[in-house]
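#struct-pred
JK: can someone run the complex with magnesium ion? inputs below
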Amino acid sequence: MIKKFLKRVFRKPARTRTAGNAQVIPFSLHGVAREQISYGALKVTDGLQAAGYQAFVVGGAVRDLLLERTPKDFDIATDATPEEVRRVFRRSRIIGRRFQLVHVMFGEEVVEVSTFRRMIEAEDAQTDEHGRLLRDNEFGDQEQDAARRDFTANALFYDPSTQEIYDFHGGYADTRDHLLRMIGDPETRYREDPVRMLRAVRLSAKLGIKLDTATAAPIAKMKSLLDNVPQARLLDEVLKMLLSGHSVECIQYLRKMNLHHGLLPLLDVILEQPMGEKFIMLALRNTDERLSQDKTVSPAFLFAALLWHEVLGAWNLRVQQGGRPVGAMHEAMDEVLAKQKAQLAIPHRQDAVMKEIWLMQQRFEQRAGQRPYRLLEQPRFRAGFDFLLLRCASGEVDNELGLWWDEFQDAGDVRRAEMLQPEKAGDKKRRRKPRKKKAAHGEEGGATVVGTAANESSD
Ligand code: ATP
Ligand code: MG
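RT: done, structure tokens with the ligand placed:
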């Protein structure tokens, strides 16, 4: 023990060595141990190295370990081609067409392995008229692979067998200084791929590290380049932000950089309404908290929250013009979704859940007769109720309503019966005309839901 201690105190200061253009940082300096790497990632690097290839843990995982955070996943970079990787691991498959990757399976864990690739030289590169790279799928070597990555902190290679980190761009020092710095000339790199501006915001907010001044500077004047990014990619990145566990910081950062315009096009409008802002911030805080407790979060719930005050506004307008509440709600939902869809491609499959959550909000008001019991049976009652609580917390509806539902859902039969409110005069039988039986296949999506909701409120 004492010997070990003395050895530690008096040992020679650890040094980095160079290998080609890389600084090689020993374990004694960085302290990231082989045991911190996942089972599957170790199997992959060991297996590839035993077969004579280079293999490193790379990207976000190395960065997160240096910052003493738990990595989301462990990606591997290698000089073996996808076919060669495939031959080393029986349980693996090649994915992707544009740039092939290999997924290696170890029970639940899937390890993504990519072959070193290089940025295509300017004269060969295919870019759009704004300089955005349209093709980046050439194999390369380790150094080239480092150079094509975005931030210095994301371009570190960890070799689990020697426990050394290979650093071509000063990422080790930057990470230690809690600095996120773009590799190369930031303007050029944003032009190649404008999504890097959003990644800069997300990673610095999520990791609590500062964006280097030169990296941050061009963003203000270059943000319009985001307009040329395919919708699906934008949505992907926005979702990563909202589900990063640090969505509040991300949004605050986006606003500071004025980047939220055109991104979630309605976000700026919504954030300018005092009620809307409070509600959205609560929803985001709630999401961050759930994620920190390892609970699931549904993107549909989040989108429903982001757009709620738009829906509410459109609904109010229609009701003021004499529309019936449920019908007006359907029109309002469709209008808001259509507007949003034109600018940010929220997938269709989220629509149904968002609408269910929104529609339930009207039904929470109805606390007489059989209606509350019916609502409890809704498969998405929980999401609807969580949504209601957010509305209460933001001051949109009276807290009493949330408390009532909180008690009602867990109460016994007797208590539930006591809690029910008396039917209001005229509530019953308002629209009870004897109906002809509907055709078996019914109407199209939206209209059927109106029918259901109307039935619910008229019994
Ligand atoms: P996260 O913790 O959110 O997964 P990450 O840095 O691992 O963060 P990924 O999207 O998983 O992000 O990307 C893996 C790696 O690929 C990054 O660390 C980076 O080296 C590289 N990379 C990803 N997106 C880009 C990009 N747009 N431009 C250049 N390199 C990128
Ligand atoms: Mg990652």
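RT: quick notes.
The radius of gyration is 27 Å.
The longest helix spans residues 299-320.
JK: thanks, will look after standup
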